[in-house]
Amino acid sequence: MNPFFRCRYWLRQVILVVIGAMAIAFLIAAAPIVAQDNLNRVTIFVDGRPLFEVAPAGSLTAQQRADYASDTLKQIIETAPPTIDVEIAGTDNLPVIKVNGNHLLSVTSNDTLTGRSPKEQARFWQTLVQNAMERAFLERTQDYIVQAVFLSVGCGLWGLISSWGVGSLWDHQIKWLFHKKLTKSTHRYRRQPALRAEIAGGTLILLFRVTILVFTLIYTSNLFPQTRQLSRQLNDTFVQSLTWEIIWVGDKPYSVLGLLTLIGLFAALIVLAKVVKKVLRSRILRLTNLSRPAQQTIAVIFHYGILSIGSIVLLHLWGIDFSSLAVFFGVLGVGIGFGIQGIAKECVSGLVLIFERPIQVGDFVNVGELMGTVENIGIRSTEILTMDQVSIIIPNSRFLEAEVVNWTHNNPVSRLKLPVGVAYGSDPIKVRSALIEAASQHREILDQPAPNVFFTGFGENALKFELLVWIEDPPKQFQIKSELYFLIEEILRHYHVDIPFPKLDLHVRSGNFPVDVSHQLIESLTQLSQELTQWMARQSHGTSHHGTSHNNVQINNTSDNN
């Protein structure tokens, strides 16, 4: 494989992996808040770090309990007591966690995990609170602050240097591959893949550099309690804005995150359909004895079948009630009928071409002034590769509304007609033998049906013959015709048979001058001729010493009697 195309392949795979990883990371980041909404639990934070989750208790909601506990811990940290004492009070069924004598929260049965008692859950949370408070006070010491400042500066420098290094590596080591390919590819059609690959590579490098800087900023902000809390608040606000149900479809609300998830699933469905189509064509259907057009038809049916069924399943899993969208689909149908009827027309024509199969992939067709091989039949348009290796996109309706010549429909064997003219006086039997001999010497001409020669008539300058031959590869017809004419000319020359050229014989029936000229005009022309002769003589005498010859021009008007 060409190293450039191998690079493009791996570049495409890396881009897909990066996009998938970013989508998964985003969903993971949003998962805690989504889970909290589903389980009705809220997380308690200490200096921006999650501690544990609490559930509703009595008349208090989970959010109220979490806010109270977070504010209590924040106030204790701000007072900076010399020691931290986390204790458990209350009963075994309703233990109470206190920090330096301040009530933090009561542990209920709703807060416990499966298999734990409220007392055991309280002891576990006691340890978490104790460690979190000690760490909070540690991060406010002078030694830690100095160490964090040096670490943040070093991390920032590392991020900047890494981002600059990746950009420099792209500009000086990798980008030249694409420029080299662009320089070698003089044709615009060949330059496009290299240009697209360069743009994709530059975009990937930019995303990677931005990712380095973002992760550097996140890591640096997590070194300090104040910036960590601000980062957590911004993150929670952003994620919560995505989980707000602000989009209504029918009677059911949906969030932006849900809509983005649906769009991502649809994108994955489209990729899956393309992969299935490609695997069917390249791996599975190749093992069968089906023709290439049949393989293309089966792959297209699977492709659109997966898209249709997958779309219905995704919308159903997303909770859309199709009965509530009856009005929407009705309006959409009217829009299709009036607004996008051209697209609908092409799509219907595409379905007719796929199932009725008047043309198939690999057929050599002639549509209007276009002639070429059918490369792909889509739902809206068909791609034809012309003899000049130019891809032409034709709307599907043209194949149903206009006359289409399909040279390879059902049977690729086609007949070619080659008109030949020879000079008058040539032996027709010898000409016929020469044409048959020329056809028999060409390797692309079929023996059956056998070549034939017809004497079609007498032309103005030649005897007209027509050579009929049969071929099985219509796309090569122009090349075959050219090679046959070369052979015909060579063999006719060998048999001394002349190929005429147009000529015209003029027969004069009378010697009289066809136009009556007046006597005055004749005298004027004679005088002008004499003056011109004298002037030419003077010019010749002035420039050369050689003898000059004078031409006397006389116009005689004589009449011949028939």
Q: How many DSSP E strands?
A: 15
What's the structural domain tally? Answer: 5
Low-confidence stretches: 1-6, 30-38, 185-190, 544-562
Number of helices: 14
Largest sheet: 5 strands, antiparallel
The share of residues in extended strands comes to 15-25%
Order of helices and strands: HEEHEEEHHHHEEHHHHEEEEHEEHEEHH
- Gyration radius, rounded: 45 Å
Spatial shape: elongated
Your description of this structure?
This protein is an alpha+beta fold and 562 residues long. The chain folds into 5 domains: 3-33 and 244-318; 42-139, no CATH class; 142-183 and 194-243; 321-410, Roll (SH3 type barrels); 414-495, Alpha-Beta Plaits, CATH 3.30.70. The protein contains 14 helices and 15 strands. The chain has helices at residues 3-39, 62-79, 118-138, 142-184, 188-221, 225-243, 256-284, 292-317, 326-338, 341-356, 398-401, 428-441, 477-494, 519-543, and strands at 42-46, 49-54, 86-90, 95-99, 102-106, 245-249, 252-255, 364-367, 370-377, 381-386, 391-395, 404-406, 414-422, 452-458, 463-471. A 5-stranded antiparallel sheet has the order 11-10-9-8-12. A 3-stranded antiparallel sheet has the order 3-4-5. Strand 8 and strand 9 (370-377) form a beta hairpin. It is elongated and about 140 Å long. The chain starts with a helix and ends in a 19-residue tail after the last helix. Keywords: Cell membrane, Membrane, Transmembrane, Transmembrane helix. This is Mechanosensitive ion channel protein MscS.
